[in-house]
Backbone:
């Protein structure tokens, strides 16, 4: 019983530590000026009027693009390996899982290396 309680407490503390920066930024944006640090008031209002709308739009565009590409590539591939029997189907099923197992930054580095002017080697 004590081990379970300790594990839950540790998990809660880890989640709280991960949320602390986000909660701090949220507090700076909604806190009244008399409570928040007066030096940050100008910075946050500047960021909220200039940088954040652009970054928010970029983030939404990226999310939409990833959703569309995933839908257009993933659904036909899943349908293909599920309903059509062809040689190498089992291998292709495992290869389709590769993007889930490979970290994105490594995949991006390999992709950039293959498209370099000098070539992959």
Residues:
């Amino acid at each position: 019983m004590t081990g379970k309680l300790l594990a839950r407490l540790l998990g809660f503390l880890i989640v709280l530590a991960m949320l602390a920066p986000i909660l701090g930024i949220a507090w700076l944006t909604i806190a009244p000026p008399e409570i928040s640090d007066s030096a940050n008031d100008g910075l946050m209002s500047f960021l909220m009027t200039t940088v954040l709308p652009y970054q928010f739009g970029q983030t939404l565009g990226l999310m939409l693009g990833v959703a569309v590409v995933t839908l257009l590539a993933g659904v036909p591939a899943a349908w293909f390996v599920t309903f059509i029997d062809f040689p190498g189907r089992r291998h292709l099923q495992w290869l389709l899982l590769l993007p889930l197992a490979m970290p994105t930054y490594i995949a991006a580095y390999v992709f950039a290396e293959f498209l370099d002017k000098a070539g992959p080697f």
